[in-house]
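Any chance you could type out a protein's amino acid sequence plus the matching backbone structure tokens because I've never seen that pairing?

——
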Amino acid sequence: MGKVYPELDERLRKFIVSQPVFFVATAPSAGRGHVNVSPKGYRGTFAVLGPTTVAYIDLTGSGAETIAHLRQNGKITIMFCSFDHAAKIVRLYGTGRVVLAGAPEFGELLACFPEVGLGSNPGARRAVIVVEVDRIADSCGYAVPVMELTQERDVLDRWTDKKTAAELAAYRAEKNAVSIDGLPAIDAE
């Protein structure tokens, strides 16, 4: 049966950082709008900063739903799901904030991810999402299939390594300025 925890203890921390993928869910406030669920990968892009504080590197991508939703209401849920023989799911519910590349705190936060082996282009790292967690819960995951990770994809690394900083800024200005619902996401650089 599932359990609620007051903080991220050592056992939960080990489980979280050992997962090769996690999922981020956000939604706009009221009315019409789309719930967004994003898979996140690359080992080392998630960090536990404290007993109830976590962060992850938000990489340049085709959309910016999470950023737009966090700017609007801050609500976020992060889910870790074991695909190995240990049937377990951990969800972190909380309030997130966006620290964009170029913000004073950005470099300090990047230092919390020493194992990140992303490509050579720092432009891939568009933001760090910091979450103050107010609910930590696990559940069984009995119906989740057992799967084997064969390798991480390097497609994003190869794509960003071919771009200049100006090209990545132009891409974000075109693709990441607003959410699919028209909410502001990333301001022009």
